[in-house]
Amino acid sequence: MKKKITIEVGLNEQNVPTEMTWTADDGNQAPQACKAMLLSLFDEEHKDTLKIDLWTTEMQVGEMDRLFFNTLRSLSETYYNATKNERLANQMRQFAEFFGEETKIIPKKES
Length: 111
Prior knowledge:
The chain is about 35% helix and about 30% strand. The protein is built from two helices and five strands, in the order βββββαα. The protein is of the alpha+beta class. The protein has helices spanning about 60-85, 85-100; strands at about 5-10, 15-25, 30-35, 35-45, 50-55. The mean pLDDT is about 95.
């Protein structure tokens, strides 16, 4: 069985993304709008990561901060689930918390 995820990107004259939508063929949803995407693919042959990072002209800094905060938290959980390396996963979680506090997404903890 195979599934397909489709991402469409609308560009302006300077080839800068102005709109993005995505769909997955396992649902009956209409295309879903999004303002940013971060895609990483591991190249087995070269042992390297290929990346596509796009955001639209409408993406605001506060929204980018929230995207990165949520991504950092999610990556720490994914890393732990894949490796069971609790020490490094906790370090990643701590950085995500620091990032969230510094960007004012979450309140700073009392010392």
